[in-house]
Amino acid sequence: MTTALAMTLALLLDAWLGELRRVHPLVGFGRVAAWVEATCYRDRRGAGVLAWSLAVLPWVIAAIGFTVAQSPWLSCVVGAVLLYLAMGHRSLGEHAQPVADALQRGDLPAARLAVGRMVSRDTALLDERQVAAAATESVLENGNDAVFGALFWFALFGAPGVVLYRLANTLDAMWGYRTARYDRFGWAAARIDDLLNLVPARLTALTYALLGDATCAWRCWRRQAPLWDSPNAGPVMAAGAGAIGVTLGGPAPYDGVWESRPELGEGVEPSSASIVRALRLVRHGVLLWLSVAWVLALARHGGWHA
Fold this sequence. Notes:
Pathway: Cofactor biosynthesis; adenosylcobalamin biosynthesis. The chain crosses the membrane at residues 49-66, 146-168, 281-299. It is a multi-pass membrane protein. Pfam families: CobD_Cbib (PF03186). This protein has 306 residues and is mostly helical. It has one domain. Helix content is 74%, strand content 4%. The chain has helices at 2-17, 25-40, 45-69, 72-86, 89-105, 108-115, 128-175, 182-185, 187-211, 214-224, 233-244, 272-300, and strands at 247-249, 252-254, 257-259, 263-265. Strands 1-4 form a two-stranded antiparallel ribbon. The chain has a two-stranded antiparallel ribbon with strand order 2-3. The longest helix is centred in the middle third of the chain and has 48 residues, at 128-175. It starts with a helix and ends in a 6-residue tail after the last helix. The model has no long low-confidence stretch (mean pLDDT 94).
């Protein structure tokens, strides 16, 4: 019961407060991780494993110790706060809706500027379709990374689970690049993040399929996801694109070079409407997950006989 309650409280906090702007714990963690990197960096995988462990495990152990030591209700409140800090459901809309609004107005420069806050590609080179595609892809992918992944690990292991997931995800964003500096050192951060998202990504893809065009979502997931570089982003974006009936993927510019990417989804060209549909899909998915959490909680506690 406390897990479902904590999830509800966290989502309410997210809807009320949104993402903390001034003092976010992940900013402090980023500084700690930068210090660990500066101290431990060697161009070897072992150094990356050590650095990851030093940056993440003390916080996970602290969360385990606190959870064990406190009453279930106090742990519920603390867990709700930690889950809120790990999620970005409202933030998804706050970033994506301005892109949709600018495209609806026909203001391409504003749309490019807004989508530049969501993606790492060279947004100045994008046309209207590519801007809409970038925003839609980001919403679908971050539905897993910023919402459902955190909910999954919290439901499984409570506060320690969500701390592990969010910190590992943050280190992947810092170190998980195939560059000269991070190819070996960041290997552990990238692989651990892939592992932690293995199940949540597929549950997210399933959620998208159930709440949209299930036949198209499943077909796109099965055929297109294996062609995508990321083992987790592929299923999420392919199923999501199929669920809302839009064609995504295709070439995209990174650091001045247009990279070829497989096609995702089926249907109409991306537009402001596809961004809105992707946001709605994530929102409905959150309601579905929360409903399932409460059904399981009530069933476990004999709620059917009350």
